[in-house]
């Protein structure tokens, strides 16, 4: 709702940032908008507290009520506005229904936002090794960030950077020749390669000749031996095929499956470039390092080459960044990994800078905390599929034990979608950086602030629309939505753009999560008190409109978080 502040002689862009919708309160009725006097007067910084309060009062006296604003008052360092109730109702509901999936994204907060090219690297498991909880977190967080950036109109490239090179493939090549089965590889590549890897590691520890032939196999790979490479390629292709299938269950996809293997030659070029710039130092052990401090400070020394001349993880990351800049000419590149890699990325970005790449500052690391204690029936998490199967199974059991569960066409799919919502909400409730202890019981609580509750709310609102049809939805009378429960919902819907803006600024999903949970609580209260059945058609129609708007915004928010809303439960 735009309100003319001509009396203030201020540019409109100052106002947009100073005005916000007021968060609803359980205790009392609140105004709709507040103008922060602090941020308006930021230019002159010597304002003491009482002075601001005086300014707020003066402002409030200058401003007049009109057909839009029905009441003006002052709060703590703010001027508060109450909007004409019928206008508020009509404008918000029309906007939600008209904008559909774009609601909140068309806000002035995002106007003038340039379209950018954004690369997001996430998930990035190691072929033949465990897909652990860290990879799972990286997958859902990276997916959220990519979804959010895309929704804001940016062009997003989603990259999965596989651990598909290195000594493990020497072991794997040798192991497969000893213990591998072609048919097992074809039918369940991830599991079979993992088993081979575990077995050959045991053998290599006891038998020096196995270790030696593993080294030889890797050297053959490095030198480009055709036979060794074709076996390696088969491992990689079959693994990716399987990953694509499992990611699909998660609702995640990638534009590019890259990997460390792509950067074997390119990392040699990086080493040459470092050397030509005089940045490469040889150590006594024969390794090569870069001293980022310039004064021999040991904590700023980064190893970029082994003594045998082969590249390391850091070298390959440098090569990958340079390659992606050439290929995509990105405006931002975001790496989503656990916080243990914080120093690694600081060093990579710093090295890019001293190599003369100014775009290093477009690179960003989004770190997240550690999850402890996630186990499935098969023990520790080994494969992503185990987690998905566990979620599905537990949710099916829950659904079976609840009397109100309706007959579903495909209970497995519903169970998986509800279960994933539960997992994602549990993960996104706090700061991404915080560690937490995982508990299945807490994930699947049916009461309280969980993903199950969001899905339940969505399904319930959907069934209202099905039951009462959309015959009512053509026209509605705004005067029928003046109960406090309706007004609270409208005020909350008003804030959606601010919440999206917050998350777009700090890339934390928790703002959206807490917004959706509040929306669901408000919807539950309204559902109990605002009957549709047995109400006059005009009232029923208006209430249906309100519930449809809630469901629409709830679905938009859930999809951004990477959750597929269910319509029956």
From TrEMBL:
Gene Ontology BP annotations: arginyl-tRNA aminoacylation; mitochondrial translation
Cellular compartment(s): Mitochondrion membrane
Coiled-coil blocks: none
EC number(s) on file: 6.1.1.19
InterPro entries: aa-tRNA-synth_I_CS (IPR001412), Arg-tRNA-ligase (IPR001278), Arg-tRNA-synth_N_sf (IPR036695), ArgRS_core (IPR035684), DALR_anticod-bd (IPR008909), Rossmann-like_a/b/a_fold (IPR014729), tRNAsynth_Ia_anticodon-bd (IPR009080)
Keyword Amino-acid biosynthesis appears in the UniProt entry: no
Database matches in SMART domains: DALR_1
Pfam family, one: DALR_1
Molecular function terms, GO-annotated: arginine-tRNA ligase activity; ATP binding
Keywords: Acetylation, Aminoacyl-tRNA synthetase, ATP-binding, Ligase, Membrane, Mitochondrion, Nucleotide-binding, Protein biosynthesis, Transit peptide
Reaction catalyzed: tRNA(Arg) + L-arginine + ATP = L-arginyl-tRNA(Arg) + AMP + diphosphate
Record GO cellular component, one term: mitochondrial membrane
Domain DALR anticodon binding, chain residue ranges per copy: 454-569
Family as reported in the entry's similarity comment: Belongs to the class-I aminoacyl-tRNA synthetase family.
Matching PANTHER family: ARGININE--TRNA LIGASE, MITOCHONDRIAL-RELATED, ARGINYL-TRNA SYNTHETASE
Function noted in UniProt: Catalyzes the attachment of arginine to tRNA(Arg) in a two-step reaction: arginine is first activated by ATP to form Arg-AMP and then transferred to the acceptor end of tRNA(Arg).
Protein name: Probable arginine--tRNA ligase, mitochondrial
Species this protein is from: Cercocebus atys (Sooty mangabey)
Gene that this polypeptide is encoded by: RARS2
